[in-house]
Amino acid sequence: MNVMKNILRLSGVLLLIAFESALAQEMPFVALGDESPIGVAGLSETEYRLTTASGQSVGLHRFRDTRMAPRAVVLYLPGTNMNGTLKSRDERENLWLYLAGRGVPVFTLDYRTRFVPHDYPGELTFMLDWTVEQFVADALLAATQVRQMLPDTPLFVAGFSRGALYAYALAGQIELDGLIALDGSFKSIPYEPFDMAAAMARFDQAGKAAIPLSRRGYERRELMMRTALENPTGPASDERFATAAEQLSAVLYNAWGPGVLSNTRGEISSLETLIREMLAYDWFFPAVQNVEGQSIRVQENDPMTRIDDHFGSVDIPVLYFGSSRMGPGALIAGIHSASALGKGEAEIHVLEDYGHLDVLFSRRAVADVFQVIDRWLTANSNRTASE
After folding, report:
1. Which ranges of the chain would DSSP assign to H, the alpha helix?
2. If one looks up domain 3-210+284-382 in CATH, what number appears?
3. What is the DSSP code (8-state) at residue 111?
4. What is the pLDDT of residue 387?
5. How far apart are CA 363 and CA 358, in angstroms?
6. Contact 86, 98 (CB under 8 A)
7. Lesser CB count within 10 Å: N end or C end of the chain?
8. Could you report the per-residue pLDDT of 68-85, keeping only the tens digit for each?
9. How many CB atoms are located within 10 Å of the residue 257 CB?
10. What residues does each domain of the chain span?
């Protein structure tokens, strides 16, 4: 499989055409049904779906308080394997509902990966076309529709983890009022050359179009998590641990290095909250994006794509949150991306002793993250109104 041809096909002039086509379409996401209450006073959800000519799907969810006029609107782009479906109705552990209950509707995106089941029976070679540019084009369609639905409301984009990369790319494709980067980045320093031809040769040789979520396999991962959720004090499957919850907590703590994924030893986040989120993860992710993402990050201007051409010249404010457990490299990249996007102001928050997922699900997230975002949205919405 010569993936280099796939990347070149979506770059240059053809990418520009794709973006122009996205802007030209009218309401490509179609509501799947009526707006439905979610069981929290005043809050409701509407689910939308875009179906491509090839039968692939992209999802969009709107969460809002029907009793309030919107003062701002946020398009939220999830991280790798994550999606925009609702897992918790507690606003203390759900940024979307926290904002929606304060007059900020939140639209959350389901990437194409949400609609590929873990037991997909066929070949996954179609994911070779699921490039960074394709996912950014999908996000552009969503942002364009949100803008059409709320033309007079300040529009902000938020991205968590890899979703922040898409958010930064989107900032060059549509007018935004601000960007929120949640433990993610676009560019890293110092810049260095990247040999795309060699990287794609290695990719072709590996022959993997998709990366599965876990090396444990779906059934073993599912069993471990559901056991810890439903019977946390029950026996662990590993004799080194006293309970199922203790075993899973250790697995999460060490998954990316000590406390990097989540600082479960510090009990920063509720284990139950983390489990409910991770049980809903998409199983596959397009492997080509790891190569492309690296190329975009390490080069000041990646010659293989147009989606970073605007970096350094966008006049919007950026709000960045970084978890200290991700390490200095990730923090430097996150701070650089926020500070160097363009002429707008960057507000930086480093969350001490937080792991990656803790940025969203910490027991302290309301004070450390959600309230900060709410105040920042208010300030920058008012700035937009006064201009």
Report:
1. 3-9, 12-24, 95-100, 132-149, 162-170, 196-206, 218-230, 244-254, 271-279, 288-298, 328-340, 358-361, 365, 371-386
2. 3.40.50.1820
3. P
4. 56
5. 8
6. no
7. C
8. 999 999 999 999 999 999
9. 12
10. 3-210+284-382, 214-279
Distance CA 211, CA 290 (A): 10
- Mode of pairing for the β-strands spanning 346-351 and 30-31: unpaired
Number of residues that this document lists for the chain: 387
Q: Which residue has the tokens 């973006």?
A: 19
Residues of the chain with pLDDT under 70: 1-25, 384-387
- For 61, the enclosing helix (H) or strand (E) is strand 57-65
pLDDT at 26: 72
pLDDT for 106 equals: 98
Phi, psi (rounded to 5 degrees) for 45: -130, 140
Does pTM surpass 0.85?
yes
- Read off the amino acid at residue 341: L
* Predicted pLDDT of residue 10: 45
Distance CA 72, CA 47 (A): 20
Contact call for residues 325 and 183 (beta carbons, < 8 A)? no
Written as one letter, the residue type at 20 is E
Q: How far apart are CA 261 and CA 358, in angstroms?
A: 8
Closest CA to 268 of 320, 325, 321, 229: 325
CB 71 within 8 A of CB 378: yes
Locate 361 and state its tokens.
């699900």
234 close to 244: Cβ distance less than 8 angstroms: yes
- Which residue type does 306 have? R
Nearest to 196 by CA among 303, 285, 301: 303
Closest CA to 165 of 177, 178, 181, 176: 181
- DSSP, residue by residue, 345-382: -EEEEEETT--TTHHHHBTTHIIIIIHHHHHHHHHHHH
For the beta carbon of residue 336, count every other beta carbon within 10 angstroms: 18
Looking only at Cα atoms, what is the longest distance across the chain?
A: 63
In the chain, the amino acid numbered 72 is: A
Res 27: pLDDT: 84
pLDDT value at residue 281:
98
The residue with tokens 């998954």 is 255
pLDDT in tens, 308-335: 999 999 999 999 999 999 999 999 999 9
The predicted structure's pLDDT at residue 215:
87
Neighbours of 127 (CB within 10 A): 22
Residue among 168, 184, 158 nearest 77 (CA): 158
